[in-house]
Amino acid sequence: MQLEQQFDQNEWNSAELQEYLLYLEQREKDVRLYEDYISYSQKYYGLGVKQSPG
């Protein structure tokens, strides 16, 4: 996975770190929205399997 490779480098400058934290924060929101959407879909359309994003 790409993230693990990034952590192995251990050479963050503050701009990269800031950008990365923003990325994680955004991704967390996306995942939450996705999960809300999935449970909404299951409730109203009876869709079967819950899939995780990615």
TrEMBL record:
Full protein name: 5734_t:CDS:1
Lineage: Eukaryota, Fungi, Fungi incertae sedis, Mucoromycota, Glomeromycotina
